Amino acid sequence: MDKYQQLLSNVAERNNLPTLSYKPGDILFHQGVLEPRLFWIKSGLVKLVFIQPDGKEFVKAFLAENDISGSLMSVIFEKPSPYACYCIEPCEVIAMPYSKVREWSEKTPQLKDVELEYMQQLTARKEEREYQFLCLTPEERYKSFKSGYPHIFKRISQAELALFLGITPVALSRIKTRLKATA
Amino acid sequence: MDKYQQLLSNVAERNNLPTLSYKPGDILFHQGVLEPRLFWIKSGLVKLVFIQPDGKEFVKAFLAENDISGSLMSVIFEKPSPYACYCIEPCEVIAMPYSKVREWSEKTPQLKDVELEYMQQLTARKEEREYQFLCLTPEERYKSFKSGYPHIFKRISQAELALFLGITPVALSRIKTRLKATA
DNA sequence: AAGGGGCATTAACTTAGGTTAATTAGGGGC
DNA sequence: GCCCCTAATTAACCTAAGTTAATGCCCCTT
């Protein structure tokens, strides 16, 4: 992860990419629109969300300082992003066209390794999430998130957490009540 | 995908890797054990399964001819595989130590691209599965799998499909009844 | 043709999440 | 301090999935 940040840092410098500021509620990129940039989050917190035709919202992920936001589908396959990216906290962000990242990494082959490694890290995270949806109950997913990501847990609303866990805010409230009763 | 198969094909030839035969029920690799090989499936059908301490089984994926089976965690991060691989149909398989794949791809830098591309394909598949668990009901996942993967749908038991969709076989049977009634 | 084994279906009951709406709690602004 | 706005909780009811077990179906064997 660190090596990838190094790479991005170099790209940003060479291209004089500015640091952008966003407020809570601002949109970094939209659902259904091609977004060929990666967003390097220097500070703040964002969420990736799917909005269904019926208006229902689901949270794919939370990303915070030092994370990289973006849509794989857009960046790699040049398709519209299936999800949007919303700011939760005020954010400082560097937006980097993926073409620039690629361009530079073509010239320096050892950076392929860095890119590959980053993909592997991403994949490992996705494996974990897949496992949790397949094998764990909502209650177990809640406990796991609370203990595994305390720094994010503290910074999001309960409604947002519920939509990340794949349940409704009402259900999450009930789970908490249940846990309190047991303990 | 095709370019990755080319790469694997070369590795197999150069190392005289034999084609292995498995019967239904055979285990390609175990859960909880380090498995540093990739399994190139020439023919047949396998499933990747999590077995929980209480005996409950969940199906992570089905892989068939031309797919590559293996555990990312084991192959990349040298950890025990969190899941096992079981044969469903008789299989012809070439087992390839990942170290050999790496070794050879070190010498031919353009293969880094192939490797990266393969990871991206994998990630795209995982994104889709994540989306389905987060945003779709079991019933919708069933319909999506049936129409999206008819060639696999035909070859697995209903129980296996249910455990892949994240529900019990009884629930899947009910879903089918429900759908028949509606149509 | 009869029996047996393995799945799938059905049934009956329990549990937990979805939905909608009312209520409560907490924080910020004035 | 009071009001308002928002978020969280609670309630009541509905629906769907989990669980266990019985039944039915199909195919294979003998």
Note down, in words, how this protein is organized.
The structure is a homodimer of 183-residue chains. The first copy, chain A, has helices at residues 2-14, 72-77, 98-107, 110-135, 138-148, 150-153, 158-165, 169-182, and strands at residues 19-22, 27-29, 37-43, 45-51, 57-64, 68-69, 84-87, 91-97. With 183 residues, chain A is α+β, with helices and mostly antiparallel strands. In chain A, the strands form two sheets. Chain A has a four-stranded antiparallel sheet. In chain A, strands 2-7-4-5 form a four-stranded antiparallel sheet. Chain A is elongated. The mean pLDDT of chain A is 91. Chain A binds a DNA duplex (30 and 30 nucleotides) through helix 8.
How would you sum up this structure in a few lines?
With 183 residues, the first copy, chain A, is of the alpha+beta class. Chain A has helices at 2-14, 72-77, 98-107, 110-135, 138-148, 150-153, 158-165, 169-182; strands at residues 19-22, 27-29, 37-43, 45-51, 57-64, 68-69, 84-87, 91-97.
Note the main attributes of this structure.
183 residues; homodimer; DNA-binding; alpha+beta
